[in-house]
Write a structure and sequence with these properties.
Layout (H helix, E strand, L loop, with lengths): L3 H12 L7 E6 L4 H13 L3 E6 L18 H6 L5 E6 L5 H15 L4 E6 L3 H5 L6 H15 L4 E5 L5 E5 L7 E3 L9 E2 L4 E5 L2 E8 L18 E6 L2 E6 L4 H10 L9 E7 L11 H4 L4 E7 L3 H4 L8 E6 L3 E4 L2 E5 L2 E2 L3
Parallel strand pairs: 1-2, 1-3, 3-4, 4-8
Antiparallel strand pairs: 5-6, 5-16, 6-10, 7-9, 9-13, 10-11, 11-12, 13-14, 14-15, 16-17, 17-18
Helix pairs in contact: 1-2
Length: about 325
């Protein structure tokens, strides 16, 4: 395991590749101050001009999502001259739509900004996923991308009961997310995945890793798996027998807009430096295996033709992946190393 300091150095120097004297927007919150301090220390060593914003300074952030914090104009103005952006803060219910999406839209529309996205980052993530060998991650990601970029269908199975077939549109793009952040492509950190948007999927996903969005507060769902059934790309049922309150919330989630129940992102984690799922999506989605998301499929990146205010990631454990009949992972281990 690495250190908080090493993780911060890798984020700034290896992934975002900040140059001396750059202007940086650092968005954080009170609960993530330890990580933000470590990042700021590395940035200060590069004589950067740092605009540090603490989200609670702009209003309350209720856990129940009753009044999600909007993206402040003051932060937006700082992006006008910045060339680097970092978000390192805990997620709250409703803030995906009210805060993070407007921020990322601003990043996407600014051709100068390189953005590192770290929702729910903590010390453990900095010591593990951010301290991994990104040269290895980049090599494996390129190999996986070379196999899947022309895939027409991928079957995913697991001992827990996952068995679904996802189909892909050859006109839509597969992207490599391996820690190399550019002005053209922001990325989550820690990194290590190859992803696209599935055109459709049929079958069952047994989610026994963790959930994203505001469900991330629950940690790992290994002891209360969520069963999601798909047909022709749409969720037909979602069940969580051991946590009925979670099931009720998920049933509401998939109805929030016309595409909230549609399979979107399909991703293969490539960060082989990780040895366990910790219950934080930011890192767990990079764990070797598969995660899928319902809702938004990153149309601005993948070329998929729909959008949604929803984006619920779901991490699966111990999967076997067959790409057009070729097995590239068996029971959670890559067979192409």
């Amino acid at each position: 395991m690495g250190t908080l300091e090493l993780g911060a150095q890798q984020a700034i120097n290896k992934c975002i590749r900040v140059n001396k004297g750059e202007e940086v927007v650092l968005v954080t919150d009170r609960g993530t101050a330890e990580v933000a301090d470590a990042l700021e220390k590395v940035l200060s060593g590069l004589a950067c001009k740092i605009h540090r914003f603490v989200m609670e300074d702009f209003g309350e952030r209720p856990e129940d999502g009753s009044n999600p914090l909007p993206f402040p104009r003051q932060i937006a103005q700082a992006y006008e001259t910045a060339t680097v952006s970092i978000y390192a803060a805990a997620g709250r219910k409703g803030e995906l739509k009210s805060f993070r999406v407007p921020m990322l839209n601003l990043v996407d529309s600014n051709p100068k900004v390189r953005h590192g996205h770290m929702p729910n980052v903590n010390r453990l993530i900095m010591e593990t996923g951010m301290s991994t060998d990104y040269d290895v991650v980049q090599q494996l990601s390129a190999k996986v991308h070379g196999i899947v970029k022309t895939a027409r269908q991928i079957r995913v199975t697991s001992p827990a009961g996952t068995d679904f077939l996802a189909r892909f549109n050859p006109a839509w793009r597969w992207l490599i997310s391996d820690g190399q952040i550019t002005a053209e492509q922001w990325s989550n950190l820690p990194d290590g995945e190859v992803f696209t948007c599935a055109e459709t999927a049929t079958g069952r996903a047994v989610v026994d890793g963790c959930l994203g969005d505001y469900f991330g507060r629950e940690g790992t769902c290994e002891t209360w798996p969520v069963i999601v059934d798909f047909k022709d790309g749409l969720v037909t049922s979602v069940r969580c027998e051991k946590r009925p309150e979670i099931q009720a919330e998920l049933e509401k989630y998939v109805k929030q807009d016309a595409n909230a129940s549609r399979i979107g992102e399909f991703a293969i984690g490539t960060n082989v430096g990780l040895d366990r799922i910790i219950g934080v999506l930011l890192q767990d989605e990079k764990f070797p295996g598969v995660h899928i998301a319902i809702g938004h499929g990153y149309p601005e990146k993948t070329g998929s033709p729909w959008s949604s205010d929803a984006h619920l990631d779901m991490v699966l454990r111990n999967v076997t992946i067959e790409v057009d009949g070729r097995t590239i992972m068996k029971a959670g281990g890559f067979t192409i190393l």
